[in-house]
Amino acid sequence: MRAAKILTPDSHVAGSHVATARLHAFYVLTKPRVNSLIVFCAIIGMFLAVPDGLPSPAIVFAATVGIACVAGAAAAMNCLIEAQIDARMSRTRGRPLPRGELTRRETLAFAGALGGSGLLILHQHVNPLTMWLTLATFVGYAVVYTIFLKPRTPQNIVIGGASGAMPPVLGWAAVTGDVSADALLLFLIIFAWTPPHFWSLALYRSADYARAGLPMLPVTHGPEFTRLSVLLYTCILFGVTLLPFATRMSGIPYLIAAIALGGCYLGHAWRLYVDYSDARARRAFRFSILYLFLLFAALLADHYLRF
């Protein structure tokens, strides 16, 4: 007869650690640091869409959960498609798939379940327009950008940035059921922000991208051209961020914040251009994240100060 398996306290602890590690691996697949900024911008879009007062808490909650789920699914699909590339890059080789913590089948099932749940929430508890726009954003990032643009053109982040610029539009559509010119201004801000943000990262990770065979701008056109592009796009971004004031979407408080933040960002871009170092590129990249967070926070504060 087979001997009965004896479960000891240590075996329970080991099982618990394995389960926790797997849950953490699924969590990492969703790229939570990136997606926290995406969800934040979507929430700002929800509040800005209401001219007087506050959006419905139920809509805000359902839209936030739905958008976060689909964004997490898109990130997981990106990890699945780029698993072999990630294994060749020092920045990404610690992700769950290159480390063997999860299988491709598990990742695909997780992305499907998470994305499907998010779309269902948006359709049933928000509105169909938001669901379709979110689905289009998912396809734009996980398919168009990841499969077709990123491995083929140095303009991948410019064209593919349209997907990353959608969150405030999704938030706006969730509350109003349509997409207005003001929502498109929010889209334009993130669209202009994306290239200088990402190229700062690509500058100090260019060896990684070259090793992975990805045609990022510093690899195909060299660091000096990339630094000039960062500076020029930051100038474009500065102008674009003044449009909410020019169209009376926002007021003086936002204008002051946009000029101050834009001036700081231009300072980073200028120093990056005239006196490059990897440390400067890292600082510019990190500041760009803080910049977008503070800019959208200023839009929100201005909205209610004026109200």
UniProtKB/TrEMBL annotation:
<dbReference type="GO" id="GO:0048034">
    <property type="term" value="P:heme O biosynthetic process"/>
</dbReference>
<feature type="transmembrane region" description="Helical">
    <location>
        <begin position="156"/>
        <end position="177"/>
    </location>
</feature>
<feature type="transmembrane region" description="Helical">
    <location>
        <begin position="252"/>
        <end position="273"/>
    </location>
</feature>
<feature type="transmembrane region" description="Helical">
    <location>
        <begin position="183"/>
        <end position="204"/>
    </location>
</feature>
<protein>
    <recommendedName>
        <fullName>Protoheme IX farnesyltransferase</fullName>
        <ecNumber>2.5.1.141</ecNumber>
    </recommendedName>
</protein>
<feature type="transmembrane region" description="Helical">
    <location>
        <begin position="225"/>
        <end position="246"/>
    </location>
</feature>
<dbReference type="InterPro" id="IPR000537">
    <property type="entry name" value="UbiA_prenyltransferase"/>
</dbReference>
<comment type="function">
    <text>Converts heme B (protoheme IX) to heme O by substitution of the vinyl group on carbon 2 of heme B porphyrin ring with a hydroxyethyl farnesyl side group.</text>
</comment>
<dbReference type="InterPro" id="IPR030470">
    <property type="entry name" value="UbiA_prenylTrfase_CS"/>
</dbReference>
<dbReference type="Pfam" id="PF01040">
    <property type="entry name" value="UbiA"/>
</dbReference>
<keyword id="KW-0350">Heme biosynthesis</keyword>
<feature type="transmembrane region" description="Helical">
    <location>
        <begin position="102"/>
        <end position="123"/>
    </location>
</feature>
<dbReference type="InterPro" id="IPR006369">
    <property type="entry name" value="Protohaem_IX_farnesylTrfase"/>
</dbReference>
<comment type="similarity">
    <text>Belongs to the UbiA prenyltransferase family. Protoheme IX farnesyltransferase subfamily.</text>
</comment>
<feature type="transmembrane region" description="Helical">
    <location>
        <begin position="34"/>
        <end position="51"/>
    </location>
</feature>
<keyword id="KW-0472">Membrane</keyword>
<keyword id="KW-1133">Transmembrane helix</keyword>
<feature type="transmembrane region" description="Helical">
    <location>
        <begin position="285"/>
        <end position="305"/>
    </location>
</feature>
<comment type="pathway">
    <text>Porphyrin-containing compound metabolism; heme O biosynthesis; heme O from protoheme: step 1/1.</text>
</comment>
<feature type="transmembrane region" description="Helical">
    <location>
        <begin position="129"/>
        <end position="149"/>
    </location>
</feature>
<keyword id="KW-0812">Transmembrane</keyword>
<dbReference type="InterPro" id="IPR044878">
    <property type="entry name" value="UbiA_sf"/>
</dbReference>
<feature type="transmembrane region" description="Helical">
    <location>
        <begin position="57"/>
        <end position="81"/>
    </location>
</feature>
<keyword id="KW-1003">Cell membrane</keyword>
<keyword id="KW-0808">Transferase</keyword>
<dbReference type="GO" id="GO:0005886">
    <property type="term" value="C:plasma membrane"/>
</dbReference>
<dbReference type="GO" id="GO:0008495">
    <property type="term" value="F:protoheme IX farnesyltransferase activity"/>
</dbReference>
